[in-house]
Design brief:
By secondary structure, this protein is an alpha/beta fold. It is built from 14 helices and 12 strands. Strand 1, helix 1 (16-30) and strand 2 (34-38) form a beta-alpha-beta unit. Helix 1 crosses helix 14 and helix 6 packs across helix 9 (257-266). It is globular, with a radius of gyration of 21 Å.
């Protein structure tokens, strides 16, 4: 099968959507499909290369993004059987070949803070109209499917649920020397080490974990909290200062996947306090590596972590203090959970998940023939 994947919105490969695109292309190629990228000057996609072999760049300007989403993506390459738009950016028109759109989450509809301006409301109104023209939709979790059912019930009949995948690097063993190099590079030296990765906007609720760690560290002479990618986030750094944790919290810049995998392997505990998600990629990565997890008890994270982590009330600092302390004090009790969680994490293998996408593509093609 010949598939065109819209890579117009890729830039620095720091977002969850970019991670998704990279894994999807990798999985499809491993499943035997031919994949071409559309929306960037460099069309060749190299699944065995970092960032699919695409150059780092700035995100496209609003005007360039608007032009591509409304008109450019309609220029379907020759011999392509299907176009996959891996984010909610379909034009308000039917494409020349069947199209599939990925719905990662419905944050702007669920949380008012993400659609306050007139420009935002107009754009998301366009998204609502445009999704009607896609042949098939993919929701990355049952939780996202349920949100779609609530806000756009007319779309669920053409929507399939396919979980996100985890890049193969997270399933591989890591050399001890590589872990040591990463620890030295970021100045990490304390144990136990509590790790967070996954963004820092308000819904991520990182401030709750910072406040909880203040109480955890009051009873521990050693240990550190590592916040991946928070170096330039002023609100996070302010929270660290307000909780008097400057000496116990390490904030890093954005890290490469190789370093991220090494840091997961170095962690004694992974925490994920988010209040709203479409899926929850970092907990899935932690499962693949084999790190104990304490995370928010919300539907998408519950769907990903299941019984292989400790799930608690996202907003209760006391619950976070108790759960983190319990995991750090009794790590042996989590060994079965971690071991079985790694086996379960194989369900997030991209080559396996790509087979489900091929089924959706074939279904979309058959639908056009009816």
């Amino acid at each position: 099968m010949n598939i065109a994947v819209d890579v117009s919105n890729t830039a620095g490969f720091r977002t969850g959507t970019e991670e998704y695109i990279e894994g999807l292309v990798y999985g499809l190629r491993r499943a035997g499909a031919q994949v071409v990228g559309v929306g960037r000057e460099t069309q060749a996609l190299l699944p065995d290369k970092p960032r699919l072999g695409l150059d780092l760049r700035r995100h496209p300007s609003p005007l360039a993004r608007w032009w591509w989403e409304y008109y450019g993506v309609r220029r379907v390459p020759k011999d392509v059987e299907i176009v996959h738009v891996p984010f909610m950016a379909h034009p308000e028109a039917r494409l020349a070949v069947p199209s599939v759109v990925t719905v990662h989450d419905l944050i702007p509809w669920r949380l008012d803070a993400y659609r306050r301006s007139v420009k935002e409301r107009r754009y998301f109104a366009h998204v609502e109209r445009a999704l009607l023209f896609a042949d098939r939709l993919v929701a990355i979790s049952k939780a996202t499917y349920d949100d779609l059912s609530e806000f756009f019930p007319n779309l669920v009949a053409k929507t399939a649920v396919i979980h996100n995948g985890v890049h193969p690097d997270f399933f591989e063993e890591v050399d001890v020397d590589r872990i040591g190099q990463a620890l030295r590079r970021f100045g990490l030296r304390r144990r136990p080490r509590v790790l967070y990765a996954g963004g820092f906007d308000e819904r991520k609720n990182v401030g709750t974990v910072i406040a909880a760690m203040r109480e955890v560290f009051r009873h521990r002479k050693d240990g550190e909290l590592v916040l991946i990618g928070a170096k330039d986030n002023l609100s996070v750094r302010r929270a660290v200062v307000e909780n008097e944790l400057e000496s116990r919290v390490v904030v890093t810049p954005f890290v490469s996947r190789a370093d991220l995998v090494a840091l997961y392997h170095s962690a004694d505990l992974f925490v994920y306090p988010s209040r709203y998600e479409g899926f929850g990629m970092p907990p899935a990565q932690a499962l693949a590596v084999g790190v104990p997890i304490v995370a928010s008890d919300i539907p998408p994270i519950r769907e990903v972590v299941q019984d292989y982590g400790v799930l608690i009330d996202a907003g209760s600092i006391d619950a976070w203090v108790e759960a983190i302390g319990r995991v750090l004090d009794t790590p042996a009790t989590l060994q079965r959970m971690v071991t079985e969680g790694q086996i379960y994490a194989e369900t997030f293998s991209w080559p396996r998940i790509a087979q489900s996408y091929l089924d959706v593509y074939h279904d979309a093609i058959r639908g056009r023939r009816v």
